[in-house]
Specification:
The chain is of the alpha+beta class. The protein has a domain at 63-180. The protein has five helices and nine strands; from the N terminus they run H-E-E-E-H-H-E-E-E-E-H-H-E-E. The chain has helices at residues 2-19, 61-64, 67-75, 121-132, 143-154; strands at residues 43-45, 51-55, 58-59, 79-87, 93-99, 107-112, 117-120, 162-169, 174-180. A hairpin with a 4-residue loop joins strand 8 and strand 9 (174-180). Residues 32-41 have a biased composition (Polar residues). This is YusW-like protein.
């Protein structure tokens, strides 16, 4: 009986210590590396009262509600996906893509080694959309027509070593041009 009483008192003491003190102030473990008011490093508040997850310091478009805006913009185009890869030698490339899979968020990225610009998500989409909006290409566009329009719209030089563009149109057709100099 004595042993049971000591065990019960010990458990109660441990429970009370874990609950904090009677002043309702948080108990801070002095060995802890964070304080109770710190936010995790992978979130930020956008000023609207919502917290968005981030990737490399940019908002995730699925959390910020801009996916609908990107979809509405893409619906204005005759194609649903575009991928551009242009190599200029010395391992310098321009790569850009907008990908719109069914029932998935729109993905966009720019890896521009020519101008040292690297974007993902909404920032990449905002950079690319005005460029792809200028393109007047069809599945029957010639290589020369496609290359000229893409270089002009993206502001790129024609002294490339390899040019590769793939466009998936809304009707399911494709335009796939690859040229090497």
């Amino acid at each position: 009986m004595k042993r049971l009483l000591i065990t019960t008192v010990s458990i109660m003491a441990i429970g009370l210590a874990a609950c904090g003190n009677d002043t309702n102030e948080p108990v801070v473990d002095e060995g802890a590396t964070t304080t109770p008011t710190e936010q995790p490093a992978d979130t930020n508040t956008d000023g609207t009262g919502t917290t968005d997850t981030t990737t490399n310091g940019t908002k995730d478009e699925t959390a910020s509600g801009t996916t609908d805006d990107m979809k509405a913009d893409m619906d204005k185009l005759s194609f649903r996906e575009i991928e551009v890869e242009i190599s200029y030698g010395n391992d310098i490339e321009y790569e850009a893509e907008i990908e719109q899979d069914r029932n998935e968020p729109i993905k966009a990225k720019v890896e521009d080694e020519v101008n040292q610009v690297y974007l993902k998500g909404q920032e990449a989409f905002d950079d690319l959309y005005p460029k792809v909006e200028q393109l007047q290409l069809t599945k029957d566009s010639t290589n020369e027509e496609t290359i000229n329009q893409v270089l002009k719209a993206f502001g790129l030089k024609s002294d490339y070593q390899k040019f590769d563009v793939e466009i998936k149109f809304n009707d399911g057709s494709k335009l796939d041009i690859e040229e090497r100099k």
